[in-house]
Amino acid sequence: MTMGLIVGNRSSFTDPLARSGWEEDAARVAGGGHGCGALTAQESKYGAVGTQEESWRCAELYEAEEKQEGQESDPEHSDFTAT
Length: 83
Fold this sequence. Notes:
The protein has 83 residues and is mainly α.
C-alpha cells in the first residue's frame, strides 16, 4: 500500500523544520512497510507543500498512484473514521 504524505509549509515553519519533518515522516511510513507518495525536494522546497500549485502536484501524484495500484478514492466510502 502506498500512503500519501503532505508536509504543509506556508512560511509557518523554518526550512530546516520542514525538511526534517518530511524526512522523519517519510522514514516512518517506509519503516512500516508502506510506499510513500509525496513530493520530493526537487518538486518543491524540501518536499513541503506551500503553494496551490504544489498542492495540485500532490493531487496528480496521488491520482497516478491510485491508478497504478488499481484503486479509486471515494470520499463517501472512505476507510477513515473519525475518533
